[in-house]
Amino acid sequence: MSKLQTAEVVTPAQLDELIEEATVDCYDEEEQASGFFAVIEDNLALPFTTRILGVEASVAAVEMDGDGRVKAVCERGGERQRIDLIDLPLPSPPPAGAEWIAAYRRWVEGGGFAETEEGEEDE
Prior knowledge:
Number of helices: 4
Largest sheet: 4 strands, antiparallel
Oligomer: single chain
Mean pLDDT: 86
Low-confidence stretches: 1-7, 115-123
Strand order of the largest sheet: 1-2-3-4
Shape: globular
Number of strands: 4
Strand content: 15-25%
Order of helices and strands: HHEEEEHH
């Protein structure tokens, strides 16, 4: 499953299988995020070019920040900026391994990195 062709449409069921693969044997959210970082780092074809705010930039690497979020390291004209992977626009066609980004996004939207308990107390 982890070697999907980029031209293939990834279904929700396939994304759920990728989420399971990335988070197997993980006991908490931090370990799950580390699992996603590992599979994205191993499978995403880097570098690739995408458009960010209307300009082309190269996605040179992925990193995990101190909060456990996976970031794309983008470069243009000698400058570097980290963009949260959930916010990174992907080119068309997407690079090989982009299905892992889609799975990561689905995981985050489904409750990975839940809001802090303070915000939930206000409900």
